[in-house]
Amino acid sequence: MKAFPIWLILGATLTFLIGPFLIVIFAGLSAGEALAFPPQGLSLKWYAKVFTVESFRASFALSMFLAVFGTLAALILGIPAAYALNRYKLPGAETIRTVVAAPIIVPGIIVGLSLLRYFVVPLNVSILVALFVTHTALVLPYAVRVVSSSLNNLRADMEEAAVILGCTRLQAFIKVVLPNIRGGILAAFILGFVASFNEVPASLFLSGPGVRTLPIDMLSYMEITFDPSVAALSALLAFMSVGIVFLAERLLGFSRYV
Amino acid sequence: MSDAFVSLTDLTLSYGKTVAVPRLNLDIKKGELIALLGPSGCGKTTTMRAIAGLLTPSSGRITIDGRDVTRVPANKRGIGLVFQSYALFPHLSAFENVAFGLRLQNLGRDEIQAKTQAGMSTVGLEGFEDRKPAEMSGGQQQRLALARSLVMEPKVLLLDEPLSNLDARLRLEMRNELQRVQKETGITMVFVTHDQAEALALADRIVLMKGGKIEQLGTPAQLYAEPSTVFAADFMGFENIFATKGDTLVSDKGSLPLQFQSTAEQLAWRPSGVAVGHGPYTGRVVASSFAGGHREYVIDSALGPVKADASIDISEVVIGQELAFDLPQSTARALTK
Questions:
Q1: Residue-wise pLDDT tens digits, A149-199
Q2: How far apart are the CA of B325 and the nearest CA of chain A, in angstroms?
Q3: Among A60, A76, B151, B335, which is most exposed with the fewest C-beta within 10 angstroms?
Q4: Is-contact B129 B95, C-beta < 8 A?
Q5: CATH: 1.10.3720.10, 3.40.720.10, 3.10.450.540, 3.30.428.10. Which one for A53-224+235-256?
Q6: Domain limits of chain A?
Q7: How far apart are the C-alpha atoms of B135 and B94, rounded to whole Å?
Q8: What is the pTM of this model?
Q9: What ipTM was reported for this prediction?
Q10: Could A158 and B89 be called an inter-chain contact, meaning their C-beta atoms sit closer than 8 Å?
């Protein structure tokens, strides 16, 4: 009986973590016309319908673009930043670290509102550019953090050894540092990708006619049409995330870096 | 010195505002094996990093083979450096580690292959080409690091604490290995160590450093037999060092009358130089340990503790017993400061 509370806690935790996911999967399998649980009969028609909705296709493409290229941009900025913070005693390094982490700390809704009010509207920036900049900034903390912890495990004398063998500092970075933090970079990419793809609050403010990310598009779809296709799409997206993380774990031991 | 191959002239090295090495002068001959010896913080590693070009001197000059390299960056100096941690590239195989520097030189495939192969066999690592450094033992990693530097045919090979990460048996083996490689290649080597036994065994000349300055420079035999300062004597195993005042030896614990005339400010004896079992002094044995060929005693005398080695032929003296001893003139070393 002693173990009982532990099993209860574990059971409750799993229920609340995985339960919604299961509900969404099954709600999407409904044969009925409205989003409901338990589903009314079983069919795959809503899963099929997801692929025929034009706006889903467009917003999926946009979200994919933002997740891939926003994260890449964040890595291009973040890797040198992590390297500099790690290897050199910079004045104000702690301040820089805090500023870089800010996008995680500041609520996305505030980021979105202020970007709209003080960046997009006054400067007349296109929504697409604003979204790209926002997603890059939001992913940057992940890039810097994860790459930093990777660099921490890499001894600085390896680069010196490469320099003594004839490398320039840049060559040493490319030939010795990069290959050894590859896992960390990939982990940062996956984290960033998922964070960007799932981002709602900031993107909510940065939507225009025909330009919205997939989660926002799903929100507005649900306001008009209350059919199970949103549940089906949610389930598909969840599977995509799980698949990516699973692959990363298998190929690289992803959990070592996070 | 005209035959200097590596010359450090008035070399001043600092980290920020802290001067680690002030105005160092040192000449190293071609083919010499030099040990930079000293406790941590004495500037030995700093000096080595400056020779390698990893640290820019704040003033002074470094010449190698007649060429002023003071402002030449590390990757153009033609120097080899074996790091204390070996600093092998974990993502590359043993072969690629050794070939790393050669590949940067635009050599042909065959030449790289041949030189790398030769380098690996010089250090006895044939057959390990495909191993990753993590799959090799400490001794093998050490050899690999050595081979990686040697294939570049550096003018000078620097080694940072080359034996410190190895266990006692491997250390001996590697020591012989280093001497053999040095004989075979005739390369000029400078190695940094805090271990006097290592320096004595390997080096042609020892540069004993303290506080960024050269305390004493000489052959192992000279340093071993004739340390000229208290610091050098202490480092070379003269464990009994006492000041003299006229005809007495004094320490902060007390004094004893000196049995001979001396004008030296300090006198020093190795434990093996202290005569045990007879002599004008007596003391109480406070520690006794068996050390194979001899016994090591600590004798508490009027002068404070005296360390003495006694032959095992003499019957053992137990702790607490009185023991006669002598600090003879024949084994005394006179020190200046």
A1: 899 888 889 999 999 999 999 999 999 999 999 888 988 998 899 899 989
A2: 52
A3: A76
A4: yes
A5: 1.10.3720.10
A6: 53-224+235-256
A7: 10
A8: 0.81
A9: 0.84
A10: yes
